[in-house]
Amino acid sequence: MKTLNDYLALSYRMEIIRDSDEGGFVASYPDLPGCITCGETEEEALKNALDAKKAWLEAALEENIEIPEPDSLEAYSGQFKLRLPRSLHRALAEHSQREGISMNQYCVYLLAKNDALHAG
User: Fold this and answer.
1) Are 19 and 26 in contact (CB under 8 A)?
2) For the whole prediction, is pTM greater than 0.90?
3) Which end of the chain is more exposed for a tag (fewer CB within 10 A), N or C?
């Protein structure tokens, strides 16, 4: 049987989103049902989330509730092929060159930025 420290050492995915209705930020662990907290700032939400995860795991162990393992990323390689118009390819290459980074890094930045905007 795993201990609290065993579960705390696992990499559970945390999500932090802006709460546009109440203000502040909401943090949760999708793999731990009901493990959710909030904070006025992202930093506060992060700190509170770590405390909430520990409390959630402690309660689950005390109550003999099954604790799910973190969702695995093994099914994802981190790569995909993308075809795009030549004009967009050129624009991305030029922008990445101006930023002094590879086009791959620039595209990852753009995708992550857009994903964060639409996460809520």
Assistant:
1) yes
2) no
3) N
